[in-house]
Amino acid sequence: xxxxxxxxxxxFKKIENRNNITVIPAGNSxxxxxxxxxxxxxxxxxxxxxxTYPSNYLLVAKSxxxxxxxxxxxxxxxxWVTVPSSCMEDSGFSLHPTFKFQIALDSKGQCHWRGVIMSxxxxxxxxxxxxILKFLPDGLKPNMNFMHTLAIxxxxxxxxxxxxxxxxxxxxxxxxxxxRFFNTGNGLSQNIWLDGxxxxxxxxxxxxx
Length: 209
Hints:
mainly beta
């Protein structure tokens, strides 16, 4: 108490030195490596007039198999992050080289997917559940179990139930996913489209496996 003024201001606030926030130049990718921990913040200095305006981002998923994912604070949607091929569980499938599997997070707590997973052989085996992807890391898991229909291409024509070619993904809140396909054993169906898959996250700040 003999040196009370040493570390306290006249307003009784402790003086602490803190590092400045990392500034990401406009249009650049958000970090996928470095000394960042879950909950750390960066700022991307996009032009005010751009579609992606200046925003802080919080690191909410840090996974060696699914990549790093940052949730925006001010802007609506984060930049799309290309998911690495290490997310794949079944060797019979791979990520499309052109229509890349990508994930974006929005400021409202939603997770958005797009892109294509493709079968390594024409014709996807129908009527069986397949765990194509590894478990989702905390930070990308859904807040409840749900199913989402998926488009398949190419498809052949037909009528009625036998003419429908498609699939679905089942997602559990613990991060498990499985795919099931219908009338895809035609020797043609190869691409599984993830566009339009959107769900609310269950977790905010966690490490991924």
